[in-house]
């Protein structure tokens, strides 16, 4: 990377004594870089008019940028000056940022520093950035926007030292960092860090503070590629400004699958640790986002990865991941996600729908999009692979892959989209339409087909409730766009009987009438029975037993006997 050094000596009339700029780099007469003019802040006025992109900006006294955009050719903060960029402000600098040793330059959360050229910076700045709303003992995947001597423990001194982690691609797991008090942030690397011990037990954003020389220009980080499955890498935004997800994916399409996985999790094993983002859009992982989705695409139509934010990518080889200044965006977000607005993705022919599945304390979402850039095969940059963690997972299915986000070709109402569903717990769940855009806002209905009994439910009119055993089901549900089943005779309904426990009751759902049920302990002793049920659903009375295996024997109207071992908690 080419490094440029500024001719500092050309500003001697504005600096005063030479000691005030001893901490800046010496002039390099080989660079050929000069700004056309300069203006100095003396505490009450500018010496040569307001700053702009053609002037070096020299701060010789305290200054606060309240809001809006502040342009400069280069910035110099002199000894003793304290400069603060408040929330919602942007400093856009053509060349370099230079801060004297005893000066201070601070960028509050939701303010940004964006640089155009790759000119080298000198001196330290402070970058503040808030996490998502998290509770004590939650984690955040961080990445530093500055370089210097700040260690991980300096960054979060109240985090217990055994709760700093780096990701091992070879083992596909987060490992404790052995010596976080001596570990300095690596550019563009992601570090998983638990909250400080004093963090509240109610959801609260934690404000991080990075201190060092601001990163700028081309930044590369080596990717680890273990094999076809073990190739995830924890990386991060290396700049003191958000970056465009679209630009990042396109710049790295040869070295990664075009998907970004953003860490967004509170301590809840029932929900996935990640949300999935591609150029097509964003898939949530949290029920709180149903009516207020914290979608990075709503901050900018290209999507953003915020300042300080780490994320996961999936490597295709052992080449280097690339970041550059062209990816940087002046988007002012105080935390890693923000509320919804009505931004559309780049392709105005795109039509998307988001489908949720919910149950008791669990949530999952899948995104289906129709676009000229899509196909029925894997579309790198548009399709996003599903992360199969959490209590439930809803996804679309192809012959070889499971997608949290799937781009399909231009819309046709004869399309059929197979849905996969995985759950760790038997019970009752709801599938619902979260939101939609494009042609789906113009009257095109969205139906869910349940092949268990060939039910077709209009999701535009409300949720679909179903009962299921624990397991993975990839041949039960489909998204279709017409109620017509076709001229062929419908397939015979799948015969299914589901038996599970909830609140010390045994529940049964079946496509055949339930005639009777008997419960036995593991020694064969009868502990409960009910005859003459004659219904498709049954719920026992409260069973005064806990923490044991029960054998449930159900007889159906077709004389079929269904036996299942269940656990009473």
From TrEMBL:
Protein name according to UniProt: T9SS type A sorting domain-containing protein
Keywords of this entry: Signal
Taxonomy, superkingdom: Bacteria
Signal peptide residues on this chain, from the entry's feature table: 1-20
Signal recorded as keyword: yes
Source species of the chain: Flavobacterium cerinum
Keyword Signal belongs to the record: yes
